[in-house]
Specification:
single chain; 375 residues; 2 domains; 3-stranded mixed beta sheet; 15 helices; 10 strands; globular; binds ligand LRBWVUCK; isomerase; FERM/acyl-CoA-bd_prot_sf; transit peptide
């Protein structure tokens, strides 16, 4: 059996405690696609059977021949569920995947002080001096975010939320902070076609942004260079944004036939006023670091030559403040709007699902991929 047929899920315990919604189920199925560790054949069969029961009901397929071992094992597992109702199968599927997810994140473990955490291919995650640093690590691709990278960032945030560090930092390796969504993500079309791709991407986006909305500790962006697309829009959900004076902030959504995400349709007008937000989000105006700071999106700008030294000195001092007090203060500031932000996130994701199917978006992506257009 292919591991890719049994992708892993990141699901919050609170979601699984209640009855699994269709969204939870779809989210589980979508996120399971990026399993990096084989959960073993027994688990894969259980997941397969629950998935089939949840989507098709009781097994009424003819029994495969004895020599077709894999099909027979799958058929046996599905048939063994008898007349289990679809809703219960869905719930069991979500819970099973959630338990896989918890063991995956606990196996990533509590980060050792002063150590690089294993298990990430697209990130370098370290925990040192009370600071967990999540560094995007595709410098040759300007840290464009692949599907795998979205998943790894979610895992890293979930682990950071639980570890001993006082603050969490997101930054980029190389000359860019991040060039946004990797446009090649759109070329990996599943058997269900572009509609399924758009639907899966919307679920991934919603879950990804949701992790930032819910992140419980002070979250700091160290913007080491230009930032594009989703890496800019998310900044409204950070508690501090430090930028090198080399950084720029660009959200070319209209150019790409797309629309804002990361709760920026709400946070940007709130932060900088609707006129300035419109210039960025509708017209794709690129801001310098100093402009972004003047508009409240960036906390402070540092000269590039001393950026790393000054920022890390500052962060090391902050990381020694009482962690619980910082956490509680953050939550007081942020929790008031959590529900609203989740609703905005869902709406933005669903609007984007439609945009991804539009000619405007398809043409823009084709242009980039065929190298006719750059930002
Ligand atoms: C779950 C889905 C959520 C979706 C939500 C998000 C929306 C967004 O984020 S929209 C923003 C998408 N980003 C872009 O449109 C940026 C596209 N990239 C560029 O315009 C340029 O690459 C850039 C201006 C960033 C840098 O230009 P250069 O300095 O000239 O470098 P190169 O273009 O040569 O880049 C080097 C290398 O990296 C690849 N690259 C860079 N960015 C991306 C990207 N976003 N997606 C895919 N690939 C990217 C670029 O193609 C080059 O690759 P090679 O040619 O193979 O070397």
């Amino acid at each position: 059996m292919q591991i890719s047929n049994f992708p892993v899920l990141q699901m919050h315990k609170s979601q699984t405690a209640m009855r699994a919604s269709q969204k939870d189920f779809e989210s589980a199925v979508n996120q399971m696609k990026l399993l990096t560790k084989d959960p073993g054949n027994e688990m894969k069969l259980k997941l397969y059977a629950l998935y089939k029961q949840a989507t098709e009901g009781p097994c009424n397929m003819p029994k495969p021949g004895m020599l077709d071992l894999i099909s027979k094992a799958k058929w046996d597992a599905w048939s063994a569920l008898g007349s289990l109702p679809k809703e219960t199968a869905k719930q069991n599927y979500v819970e099973l995947v959630s338990s896989l997810s918890s063991s995956a994140s606990s196996s990533q473990g509590k980060p050792d002080a002063d150590s690089k955490q294993p298990g990430y291919e697209t990130l370098v995650v370290t925990s040192e001096n009370g600071i967990t640093k999540i560094m995007l690590n595709r410098p040759t691709k300007k840290n464009a975010i692949t599907t795998q990278m979205y998943q790894e960032i979610m895992l890293a945030l979930e682990a950071a939320a639980k570890d001993d560090s006082a603050i969490t930092v997101l930054t980029g390796n190389g000359d860019y902070y991040c060039s946004g969504n990797d446009l090649n993500n759109f070329t990996d079309i599943p058997p269900g076609g572009v509609e399924e791709k758009a639907k899966n991407s919307a679920i991934l986006l919603r879950d990804f942004v949701g992790c930032f909305i819910d992140f419980p500790k002070p979250l700091i962006a160290v913007v080491n260079g230009p930032a594009v697309g989703i890496s800019v829009t998310l900044l409204g959900l950070f508690d501090i944004v430090y930028a090198s004076d080399r950084a720029t902030f660009h959200t070319p959504f209209s150019h790409l036939g797309q629309s804002p995400e990361g709760c920026s349709s709400y946070m940007f007008p709130k932060i900088m006023g609707s006129a300035k937000a419109a210039e960025m989000l509708i017209f794709g105006k690129k801001l310098t670091a100093r402009e972004a700071c003047a508009q409240g999106l960036v906390t402070e700008v540092f000269p590039d030559s001393t950026f790393q030294k000054e920022v890390w000195t500052r962060l090391k001092a902050y990381s020694k403040l009482p962690p619980n007090a910082m956490r509680i203060s953050k939550q007081l500031i942020r929790n008031v709007e959590k529900e609203k932000l989740h609703a905005i996130n869902s709406e933005e994701s669903s609007v984007l699902q439609g945009r991804w199917l539009s000619d405007e978006c398809t043409n823009a992506i084709m242009n980039f991929l065929s190298r006719k257009a750059k930002l």
